[in-house]
Amino acid sequence: MSSIVLATLNTRYAHASLGLRCLRANLGELRARSAIVEFVVDRRPEEIVERLLEVLGSEGPRIVGFGVYIWNVEATTRVVAQLKVVAPDVVVVVGGPEVSHEVDAQRICRLADYVVTGWGDVTFAQLAHAILAGPRPLTKIHVGVQPPLADLRLPYDEYTDEDLRQRYVYVEASRGCPFKCEFCLSALDKTAWPFPLDAFLAALDRLYARGARHFKFVDRTFNLKTETGCRILQFFLDRIAARPDDAPFLHFELIPDRLPEELKALIARFPAGTLQFEIGIQTFDERVQKLISRRQDNALAEANLRWLREHTQAHLHVDLIAGLPGEDVATFAAGFDRLVRLGPHEIQVGILKRLRGAPIARHTESYGLRFNPEPPYNVLATDAIDFQTMQRIARLARYWDPVGNSGRFTRTLPWLLGATPFARLLALSDWLYATTGKTAAIANERLYELLYAWLTSAGGVPAATAAAALAQDFAASGARGKLSFADVAVPPGAARTRAATPARQARHLHS
């Protein structure tokens, strides 16, 4: 039984919470009286409350600390409400980015006994000590203390052996961001703060020795400091060289217009299936970039993307945001088409969200931004894009993921996108929605049939050409089944790759 339970609701089981592990690692003598309990966001609140109470036991002061984010705030609110009904003596503390701003406006904050805003590593431990020792603090809102990162205990020993076998290991070589992009909460940071590098690499070494192979770096600016980036990349290259048959899969977020030669030289050495870069372009429109305080050299960013695609085996995931203030459909389409020509493996089409506390809110009136009042606070309309058109773009984003980003249709995509990718994709999206009435849960074989129907009608592609491309993609993906328009022979082991590489990235490798 534990006096303190640290809990959160993740979107999927594979996502292990780094934040909870940071809190537990820094509890001091209270760590032995604590436990981490994680759930998937769609689990029934009653089952979550029951499990929390099982871990807490029934004696003495008891605390549950919830990590609250944009993706789980609604479900977590229901859990907190039920917990306070069945066990009102349990002290509920909420923290995380979603409850660090606009506290008075949120039901979950009213239900909770205490709210920790901002950094929680030190402040939660102090609050827990006060609650358990008594008397309980009278102040409800506790502003997080930001300590020097060298003073914090690293959280990586909190990952269990099961975590290392079955989940992504989230790590951070630094916190914060020096850039001021207004759609992001990191715009509130003054700079980026590095963890002591030797201690961090020693922690990575222990994780690697224990069997960790899926590492996701959450740093906003991994390549900000060249020397640090080089040492981390070299750390993994050394281990790949020692055991090439047991290589890791690594995810980094890159600044698109900063790629010095030292980093390039190391990146080029990574074998296929080991390296993924998430690269935030967000918009190519210079007027919009200036408006939202985003500094980006578009020509250099484009050159770096082209170099990565042509000279490395890294998997490239590039982000665009629709609905930014000042951006209309034409400029967004131009940015999308520009990215398609650069050939990244995935283009993530996101819809602008009003994160609580993010400076983007200052443009609400002047640019007619109309945000969903409920999570995820997505923009519903702007003065340049009306509600109906924004809905069409949102549907395009949902269809694009299984069609464009999944790696299943690499031979078919050139026929789908043609010379005007965004315009054709929008037409396809409109047709798919009119035909099916849904944007998700379309069976794999049904999707191939639908794409064939569109290509050979509105898409203007000869039937034999469309059938051949789709049949080859179907076979290469390792799918099983039958297509009405083609006989498909599936080669054995078509989509196999190294064990650590996720299936989606593996499909891109074999395309």
Q: Average pLDDT, to the nearest integer?
A: 95
Largest sheet: number of strands, sense, barrel closure: 6 strands, parallel
Uncertain segments are none
Classification by helices and strands? alpha/beta
Rg, rounded, reads 24 Å
Strand content: 15-25%
Shape: globular
Distance between the termini: 51 Å
Going across the biggest sheet, name each strand in turn: 2-1-3-4-5-6
Count of alpha/pi helices = 18
Helix content: 25-40%
Number of strands: 16
Summarize the structure.
With 511 residues, the protein is an alpha/beta fold.
Task: Walk me through what this model shows.
β5, α5 (123-133) and β6 form a beta-alpha-beta unit. The N and C termini lie far apart (51 Å). Helix content is 39%, strand content 15%. With 511 residues, it is an alpha/beta fold. The protein has helices at 18-25, 45-56, 73-86, 107-111, 123-133, 161-166, 197-210, 226-242, 261-267, 286-291, 298-311, 329-342, 387-405, 413-417, 421-436, 444-455, 463-476, 503-509; strands at residues 4-10, 34-40, 63-67, 91-95, 114-117, 141-143, 169-171, 174-176, 192-194, 214-217, 249-254, 275-282, 315-322, 346-351, 370-371, 379-381. The mean pLDDT is 95.
Keyphrases for this structure?
six-stranded parallel sheet, 18 helices, 511 residues, single chain, alpha/beta
Q: What secondary-structure arrangement, pairings included, does this model have?
A:
Blueprint: E1 4-10, H1 18-25, E2 34-40, H2 45-56, E3 63-67, H3 73-86, E4 91-95, H4 107-111, E5 114-117, H5 123-133, E6 141-143, H6 161-166, E7 169-171, E8 174-176, E9 192-194, H7 197-210, E10 214-217, H8 226-242, E11 249-254, H9 261-267, E12 275-282, H10 286-291, H11 298-311, E13 315-322, H12 329-342, E14 346-351, E15 370-371, E16 379-381, H13 387-405, H14 413-417, H15 421-436, H16 444-455, H17 463-476, H18 503-509
Parallel strand pairs: 1-2, 1-3, 3-4, 4-5, 5-6, 7-10, 10-11, 11-12, 12-13, 13-14
Antiparallel strand pairs: 8-9, 15-16
Helix pairs in contact: 2-3, 8-9, 13-15, 16-17
